[in-house]
Structures are given as C-alpha cells and as structure tokens.
Amino acid sequence: MSPVIDGPLAGQSSVCISILRLLPEWFGIEAAILNYEREIDHLPTFLARLDGQVFGFLSLKQHFPASAEIYVMGVRPEAHRRGFGRALVTATEAHARGLGIEYMQVKTLAPSCPDDGYIRTRTFYEAMGFRPLEEFKQIWDENNPCLILVKRL
User: The domain containing residue 46 runs over which residues?
Assistant: First the structure.
C-alpha cells in the first residue's frame, strides 16, 4: 500500500519533531531540533500517512522565486525503504513546479565525514535525481561538513 501525502500544511512542528526524536543518528543535536521546531510551523510541510498514521514529513523552504530547499525531512525508522521518502520528495517537487520553482536543493552531511546513515541519505537523494554541488565547512562547523545537492525541476 502506498502512502498518502497531505500538504502543503502549516503548523506541523509537533508531529514532525516527534519523528525527528526517533532519528538520533541524524538529528541528535538538541539545538538543531529546537531550531527545526521554530521553523517548521512557518514552512509548507507535507505529511506521509498510511492508515491515518503519520510516518514521515518534509518541510520546504523557498529562498528565491526560482529556488527552494528541502529544509528538513524525516521518516520513522520502521518505514525506511518503504517509499515514504520518495513519495514526499515527489509530491513536494510537483508542488514546487506549480509555484514556478526551477531548482531544488538539500543539505546533508558531506562524504568527507564518513557515516553509514549519511551514506544512505546521500544515496537516496542521488536516486531522486539530486547531484552534489559543493561541500562547505563554514555552514555548520569543521566537524560537520555540509554537502549541498541540487536538482533542476
């Protein structure tokens, strides 16, 4: 059975933060979680449901008329590799194209900082058509180099 995607919705931080807290390997920095909590309520957010239960979410941040970012996305661990992330990205891209957005970006941990979870993250985004653009050590910090991946919609 395929997930149902709802959105874009506002005011979804409580449900989204509960999912992030289930993913400490990716979202284990409390200050970052609190920042996501403040931002998500004001961003268009898509929820992936199955049988009425929320299994994942994606919040979109539009930086300029022609570009937006997958600001944060999370899928409950038991739903990994079951199509929830793919459905969220596909629905968000369709919404973005409808707004005239031409480019999508996502930030994740760079490959220069080896981590099995983030290898899976980068593999997922690359399978969705995103391509590595550049690595920055200044965005987060020296120990958490940021890789920016981009996609033309």
Answer: 4-152
How many distinct structural domains can be found in the chain?
Answer: 1
Contact 13/35 with Cβ under 8 angstroms?
no
CATH number at residue 145: 3.40.630.30
Q: What is the pTM of this model?
A: 0.92
CA distance 145 to 122: 13
CB atoms within 10 A of CB 78: 8
Which stretches in the chain have pLDDT values below 70? 113, 117, 138, 140
CB 12 within 8 A of CB 56: no
Integer Cα distance of 47 and 7 in angstroms: 6
